[in-house]
Prior knowledge:
The structure is a single chain. The chain is α/β, with parallel strands linked by helices. Among the domains are: 4-157, Rossmann fold; 307-507, Histidine kinase-like ATPase, C-terminal domain (Heat Shock Protein 90, 2-Layer Sandwich). It has helices at residues 21-33, 44-51, 70-79, 97-106, 118-130, 132-137, 159-270, 277-303, 314-324, 326-331, 351-367, 437-440, 460-470; strands spanning 4-6, 13-17, 37-41, 58-62, 88-92, 110-113, 144-148, 151-155, 309-312, 334-340, 345-350, 373-383, 389-393, 402-406, 422-430, 474-480, 486-499, 506-507. Strands 9, 10, 11, 12, 13, 14, 15, 16, 17 and 18 form a 10-stranded mixed β-sheet that branches. The chain has a 6-stranded mixed β-sheet with strand order 1-3-2-4-5-6, with helices on both faces. Strands 7-8 form a two-stranded antiparallel ribbon. The longest helix is centred in the middle third of the chain and has 112 residues, at 159-270.
Amino acid sequence: xxxxxxxxxxxxxxxxxxxxxxxxxxxxxxxxxxxxxxxxxxxxxxxxxxxxxxxxxxxxxxxxxxxxxxxxxxxxxxxxxxxxxxxxxxxxxxxxxxxxxxxxxxxxxxxxxxxxxxxxxxxxxxxxxxxxxxxxxxxxxxxxxxxxxxxxxxxxxxxxxxxxxxxxxxxxxxxxxxxxxxxxxxxxxxxxxxxxxxxxxxxxxxxxxxxxxxxxxxxxxxxxxxxxxxxxxxxxxxxxxxxxxxxxxxxxxxxxxxxxxxxxxxxxxxxxxxxxxxxxxxxxxxxxxxxxxxxxxxxxxxxxxxxxxxxxxxxxxxxxxxxxxxxxxxxxxxxxxxxxxxxxxxxxxxxxxxxxxxxxxxxxxxxxxxxxxxxxxxxxxxxxxxxxxxxxxxxxxxxxxxxxxxxxxxxxxxxxxxxxxxxxxxxxxxxxxxxxxxxxxxxxxxxxxxxxxxxxxxxxxxxxxxxxxxxxxxxxxxxxxxxxxxxxxxxxxxxxxxxxxxxxxxxx
Length: 508
C-alpha cells in the first residue's frame, strides 16, 4: 500500500497501520478533521520501514494484516529503544481473552474495539497523548507472570501500561454495552412501530373486509333487482300476449253468451215459479253471467282501465260471492266457515273487481278439495307491517314459513291513501292438497296452472294479483304440501271509511 503522509507544523502526528483501504481512509479523514497529522501504511512491514525515517507521536494499528500483524509490529516497536516510547493502540474485536494477554505481552498501550465509535476513539487518543510524559518518565519494573487457561504468560510492560490496557479493555466493554443498549432501544422502537403498523394493517384489513362484504351485498341486491325486473318484463310480455288474445276471446264468447242468456230468459219467463227446473236454469244463468264477467275482466286486465272505486263492505261482498259459488262448492261437498271480526271497516274498491277476486280464490279452493273439505274465510283488521307480495311454503316440522318473495310493482290508481296504515285482511283457507314448494313461486304467473289440461287457463291468480295491486294491497300465498293441510291466500286491502256492521262467527 502506498504511503500517505499528512503532517502539519506542531500537530500531533499519528501513524495509521491498516490493510483495508476503506477503513484507512475513514480513520485518516476523522483524525485529519480533528487537527491531527496522519500517515498511513498497509501492514506492519511497511510501518517499520516508515518508522526508520519518521517517529510519530502515536501508532494506531489493526491486528490482522498480511506480512506482519499488529502484535509483531508492537513487539518490534518495543524492542527498538528509539521507538519504545511511542504509544501503540491496537484495533481489535476482543473476541477472546487471549487477545488482551497478547496485547499485554507485546506491550500495547490500549485496545479499541472495531467497529468503533468516533467520539470514543478520539477521547482515547487525546488521553494517551496527554499522558505521554508519564510513560516516558516511568521507572522500568520487573516483568510479571499471568496464568490463564493452563498457560503462563510473562508480561514485561510497566504497571502503568498494564493498568491502562486493562482499563481500556473495560472501557471498551462498557462502550459496547452502551452501544448494545442503544441498538436495543432502536429495536424496541422498531418493534413498537411494527406493532403499530400491524395494528393499522389489521384495521385496514377489517375495513377492507367490511367494504368487500358491503360491496358483495350491494352486488347481490342489484342482482336480485335485475332478476325481479327480468321477471316483471317477462310477465309484461305475457300480459301483452293476453291483450292480443283478449280481443279475440271477447268476440268469440260474447255472442254465444248473449244467445244463451236470451234463451234462458225466454225459458224462465215461460215456466211457472214452482217448476223445480227453474233453480237449475237460474244456476245456468248465473254461470253464463259469470263467464261474461270473466271476459270483461280479461279485457279490463289487458287494457289496464282505471277501477270504478266506491265504498265497499268486504264482508258483504264475500257473502255475495259465496252465494254465487254455492253450487260449485256444494258439488265437491265443501263446508264453508265464515270468521268475520266485529266492526270490520269499509274499504275503497271496485266492487266488480273485488267480486272477481273472491270468485277466483273460492273457485281455486273448491277445485283443490274435490274429495271434500273445509273452506274458511276470515276478515279482520291489522296494522301495516310491509308492502310485499309473497309466496311461501311450509315444510314438515318447520316453525317458520319459507319461500319466494316477489316485489310488488308500481301501479296507478285513483284510490285515496289508506287511513292510518290499517288494512282489512281477508284470508281464504282450504284443506286441499296444497301446492308443491317448487311450484309455489310460479302459481301467480300468467298462464301457469296445476290443473289438468282443459280445466284451467292459468290466469286466475294472475288476475287476483293485478286486482290487489290496483287497490294498493298485498297478497300472500302460504301452502303446505307435505302434510295435506291445504293453502291459505291472505289479502290485505287498505281501510278507507267507517266500519261495517258487526258480524259474529257462524258456520254455513
